[in-house]
Design brief:
298 residues; 13 helices
């Protein structure tokens, strides 16, 4: 009679696999190993981001010009509603440069966070077919929007000069401000990517969250002027001042707009900007890495 191999327990099977050097398919590596593997795939992340940027407006007649047109159209609408109708421009020197800078910076923040919700879920075929650090997907999304931001910032510089702003050494402060903001947005995108991979409907909710965040970030109005003229609870004032989006918008405004003056920037803004970048960047990365085994399942 044929002999049958006795069934082994899961513990015995695990020991047998370990003895022969086998590991679980898709197992989460250690954090240092994950970072090294992600760094080794940096060219893939860059190429993926560039390909996404190229294909985004491939079917539109104006193509990449929409990168430049869209924020300007938004700024025009906000200027009419907030600057003209609601008189948010009163007491704000150089309101048009103030508004344009806020809109351009906010567009990068909101686009990065929103696109992060779909970074993993929209690429399930790629996730299931190939082995690579999944963090590369949300990071590629942020890199894509950062590339677009750099192009739009060049046009913003031209517009600001047209409205009487004079380039100076303070303009160089915009570089570290944008880099810190990019790290912050990368961390946020990693968080929303993990949530979106499990709950795809969060992408439908995100526009409402971002709209509320935008109104609290001083994109169209001056938070400093509002706090000086309104008797608000202390926690509300603190929340508005520490709002990360408002912090990065203020940094770029103080760097580029002469009427603000970089020397007049409150001393807490730079530490806040660095703190938010570190908290979101490191925290978001670890949060995403902890679910590495789950991406692509279901």
């Amino acid at each position: 009679m044929p002999t049958t191999t006795p069934l082994r327990s899961s513990g015995q099977l695990a020991e047998l696999a370990a003895a022969h050097g086998l590991t679980v398919s898709g197992a989460r590596p250690t954090l240092p190993a994950y970072v090294r593997e992600l760094w080794g795939r940096r060219q893939f992340v860059t190429a993926f981001a560039t390909a996404r940027m190229t294909s985004q407006y491939s079917t539109a007649r104006l193509g990449r010009l929409w990168h430049l047109v869209t924020p300007k159209l938004n700024a025009l609408v906000y200027y009419f509603v907030f600057g003209v109708v609601l008189h948010a421009s009163k007491g704000v020197p150089d309101y048009v440069p103030f508004l344009l800078t806020g809109v351009f910076v906010w567009d990068f923040i909101s686009s990065s966070v929103s696109a992060g919700t779909r970074a993993v879920h929209a690429n399930l075929g790629l996730v299931r077919a190939l082995h690579f650090p999944r963090a590369g997907l949300p990071l590629a999304v942020v890199l894509q929007h950062f590339q677009q931001l750099l192009v739009t910032m060049l046009t913003l510089v031209v517009v600001l000069i047209g409205f009487g702003q004079t380039p100076g050494p303070a303009w160089l402060l915009a570089v570290p401000a944008l880099l810190l903001m990019a790290v912050f947005c990368a961390g946020c995108a990693l968080v929303t990517a993990r949530i979106g991979s499990r709950i795809p409907d969060v992408s439908q909710l995100m526009p409402f969250v971002l709209r509320t965040w935008m109104y609290a970030s001083g994109v169209m109005w001056s938070i400093d002027r509002f706090l000086r003229h309104d008797d608000l609870p202390r926690w509300v004032s603190t929340a508005l001042e520490c709002n990360p989006a408002a912090v990065y918008i203020d940094l770029v405004r103080f760097a580029l707009i002469g009427s603000f003056g970089a020397q007049d920037l409150p001393p807490h803004v730079w530490p806040l900007a660095a703190g938010w970048a570190l908290l979101a960047g490191a925290g978001g990365f670890v949060y995403f890495w902890r679910a590495e085994e789950d991406y692509g399942r279901g």
